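Technical appendix A lists one of the benchmark inputs used to test multi-chain prediction within the project. The record comprises two sequence entries:
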Amino acid sequence: GAVVSQHPSRVICKSGTSVKIECRSLDFQATTMFWYRQFPKQSLMLMATSNEGSKATYEQGVEKDKFLINHASLTLSTLTVTSAHPEDSSFYICSARDLTSGYHEQYFGPGTRLTVT
Amino acid sequence: GIQVEQSPPDLILQEGANSTLRCNFSDSVNNLQWFHQNPWGQLINLFYIPSGTKQNGRLSATTVATERYSLLYISSSQTTDSGVYFCVPSNQAGTALIFGKGTTLSVSS
């Protein structure tokens, strides 16, 4: 199956700083990637849809100025958490859809655990 | 969007037992995936199964699209099967998958 990677897998930062998370599709091209957030014992919550070469589409309640998404190539999308606060601590997961498969099956990265102190 | 109900919400098994997880959904679908989220958070693709039956080792899945449900069978469960199982249907190609609460499985030795 298709492989999606994320970097870093774990990050600790101080309140007020910014953190960038990378999501890469390793063996396929992804015109669309998705970003999710998951709090402990809860399900995945969609944050935004990232389209290559255009602006991301954010879900209601997600601050676009706080969670900056860039999808500059067919294999890379980045999520930058700006001016992070402790309430931003969460598990962030990206996914990508392999359109060439004909099935539009969605594959997920291993996630990034963010802790803001 | 499509409403999903998974049952049971929680399941505790002894190693070696078999189990069936059920997913009911509210609308017709052209895409349905089963995922396993392991205790480390990784989401693993189990099946892409908008209809029909598929098998992969100890796991198999059946989707009856006309009756709007899907089943995931786990045979001879192992401790590594522990985690959360998500059934995620959609009816719009190219859109994000929306996750429900899933079924939390705990397998003890």
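Chain A has a mean pLDDT of 93. The radius of gyration of chain A is 14 Å. Comparable benchmark entries are summarised in Table A2.
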